[in-house]
Amino acid sequence: MVRKITELQKVLIQKSKPLNKAAYFLTKAVKLSKEKKYAEAIACYDKVIELDPRSKAAWFNKALVSSHLDKHEEALTCYEEAIRIDPTYARSWFNKGVTCIRLKKIPEAIACFEEAVRLDPTDEIAKRNKTKALQWQKEKRFE
Fold it and tell me: How far from each other are the two terminal CA atoms of the chain, in whole angstroms?
């Protein structure tokens, strides 16, 4: 009987390892990001995503780091995935809007800022960014 319990414990430990590993790599990635070791951080975020594809934190933070590296299309893809996982997180919408501005996708940026404000009506920066983007659209600044 003791042998069966030990085997069951092994199975339970094996099943818990991917999430423990994901947490380890997420912590490491955040640390590397703070140290501005962006390429290494992205590798760790990718490992987290491999282990836990629904990690909003990994997608969101990978997007931030991608922006630091001027990889705005990649950042946009990461924000979209973070939003797919948790559409109620206003910061993902806000940052996606900023990324859309960088990519000169003004109508999409406006929609993102609107959603950010809807989710967090106290976000004055999102309100200002929406106003600026609407003005740029009116002036046809990015066409």
Answer: 73
- Tell whether pTM > 0.85: no
Note down pLDDT in tens along the chain; length 143 residues. Answer: 444 445 645 554 455 555 589 999 999 999 999 999 999 999 999 999 999 999 999 999 999 999 999 999 999 999 999 999 999 999 999 999 999 999 999 999 999 999 999 999 999 999 999 999 999 998 877 65
Contacts of 44-49 with CB under 8 Å at 24 or more apart are: 47/21, 47/22, 48/22
In sequence order, the 6+-apart residues with CB closer than 8 A to the CB of 107 are: 137
Residue bearing tokens 């934190």: 57
> 38-63: string of b/e by CB count within 10 Å (b at 16+)?
bebbbebbebbbebbeebbbbbbbbb
Domains of the chain by start residue, with CATH:
17-71 (1.25.40), 87-143 (no CATH)
Collapsed DSSP state (helix, strand, coil) of residue 71:
coil
- The encoded tokens of residue 47 equal 């490992």
